[in-house]
From TrEMBL:
The modification Phosphohistidine is found at H60. It holds the Pfam family Hpt. Keywords: Phosphoprotein, Two-component regulatory system. This is Hpt domain-containing protein. InterPro entries: HPT_dom_sf, Sig_transdc_His_kin_Hpt_dom. It comes from Sphingorhabdus lacus. The keyword Phosphoprotein applies. SUPFAM superfamilies: Histidine-containing phosphotransfer domain, HPT domain. One of its GO terms (biological process) is phosphorelay signal transduction system.
Amino acid sequence: MTDKPDDLIDWKTFTETRNLLGAGFVRILGYFREDGTKSVAAIEEAMRLKDSAKLVIPAHTLKGESWQFGADQLALLAEEIEIAARHYVEIQIDPSELVEKVVRLRPVFEATLAALESEASPLVERRPVSFGQRNALGGMSYG
């Protein structure tokens, strides 16, 4: 796993979601921050308790919400944890083999969230514009 924003986020999916949600995008991203923080904490607690069953729902939730924002690396990591935890529940063993993945989860979540929030900031310039090009509003851009 890497923490380079371009490797963490599928920017095409991010842009599609931002366009689809419009004015509600920042609010929904805030929910992702809250829910994701809770999910990561619940996964860490389930690992401390060595409880495979308690890993499943927060990993599933984190996976689904991550896919919506194009947070592919985070979604894949959450999916790996979820699938393994489901298997461990079936065969009735503790999730000790997932320790490394769970340890990676928080840094990937934090890096992902930072990249998403940075891009969602109204102060971020979306696209470089060359001198003399028309901008999206039909005016001239000189930057």
